[in-house]
């Protein structure tokens, strides 16, 4: 009979306690701020407003719990020097490319369509607030599900188990989104694994944040496709899914179909391949 490592259980328990404290502080601050200024900017700035609150909440939790109390360095939490200016745009490019790949698969496999409407007059008033919102929302989710929690859990159980645990949590956190399905939850969990590999790479949080934003912006702004069940009705382009939701996600958007499963696997392999080529000890350094 295999022995239970009580030291390992103790490490895990301590890590989970720190992470629980992190989430409690992050959620309380986020909800508290949203209660003080609930309607700032109106409906058009809703995504930016919600993302801003989340960044403040989990940014503060990272500083208080990760930096001050748990004594984690900014580098350990993914914020190494000179990463942002290089890794963030690389991540944006990767995420947008993967989104385009998923849309192309939907077009080829399920005859989804993207139609140019030419309505440029309304584009800035819709796209610019959404662009700001997607930048902030991506950062907020990366702070909440990668960053300190992923590093702290990885210190206790190793990177791969930590990735899997937080990927499940990330998927379940999106289970209540409009038109969510079992496949959409699985794909969101796969996205978390993709972003976790980005986090553990030399690009750190900047690469993960950029990739997260690039994916969302690629779907919503470039193609007007729903993102995790939410449709933003961006002018100029109009996306229409095909006949089979299990292929292109239907009303949930491409993240609900196998086109995203394929794109995420390809994107993850791209990060792993590049990381092993440049830094052989990348994932567990």
Q: Your description of this structure?
A:
This protein is mainly α and 285 residues long. 68% of the residues lie in helices and 3% in strands. It has helices spanning 6-36, 46-69, 84-110, 123-145, 147-157, 159-173, 182-200, 204-223, 245-248, 258-278; strands spanning 113-116, 237-240. Helix 2 packs parallel to helix 4, helix 6 crosses helix 7 (182-200) and helix 7 (182-200) packs parallel to helix 10 (258-278). The protein is globular, with a radius of gyration of 19 Å.
Short structural description:
The chain has 285 residues and is mainly α.
> What is the rounded Rg?
19 Å
Order of helices and strands: HHHEHHHHHEHH
Q: Please work out how many helical segments DSSP would assign.
A: 10
Number of strands: 2
- The coarse silhouette is globular
Keywords:
285 residues, mainly alpha, two-stranded antiparallel sheet, 68% helix, 3% strand, globular
């Amino acid at each position: 009979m295999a022995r239970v490592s009580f030291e390992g259980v103790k490490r895990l328990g301590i890590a989970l306690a720190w992470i629980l404290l992190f989430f409690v502080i992050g959620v309380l601050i986020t909800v508290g701020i949203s209660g003080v200024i609930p309607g700032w900017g109106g409906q058009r700035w809703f995504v930016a407003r919600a993302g801003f609150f989340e960044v403040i909440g989990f940014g503060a939790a990272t500083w208080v719990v990760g930096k001050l109390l748990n004594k984690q360095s900014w580098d350990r939490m993914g914020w190494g020097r000179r990463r942002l200016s290089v890794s963030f745009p690389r991540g944006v490019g990767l995420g947008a490319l993967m989104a385009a790949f998923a849309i192309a698969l939907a077009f080829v496999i399920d005859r989804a369509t993207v139609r140019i409407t030419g309505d440029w007059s309304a584009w800035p008033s819709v796209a610019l607030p959404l662009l700001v919102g997607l930048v902030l929302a991506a950062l907020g989710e990366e702070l909440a599900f990668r960053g300190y929690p992923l590093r702290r859990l990885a210190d206790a159980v190793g990177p791969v188990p930590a990735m899997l645990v937080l990927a499940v949590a990330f998927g379940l956190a999106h289970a209540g989104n409009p038109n969510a399905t079992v496949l959409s939850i699985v794909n969101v969990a796969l996205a978390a694994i993709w972003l976790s590999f980005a986090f553990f790479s030399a690009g750190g949080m900047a690469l993960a944040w950029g990739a997260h934003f690039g994916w969302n912006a690629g779907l919503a702004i470039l193609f007007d496709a729903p993102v995790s069940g939410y449709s933003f009705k961006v002018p100029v382009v109009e996306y229409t899914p095909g006949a089979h939701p299990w292929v292109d996600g239907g009303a949930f958007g491409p993240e609900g179909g196998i086109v995203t499963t394929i794109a995420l696997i390809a994107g993850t392999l791209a990060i792993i391949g590049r990381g092993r080529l440049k830094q052989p000890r990348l994932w567990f350094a």
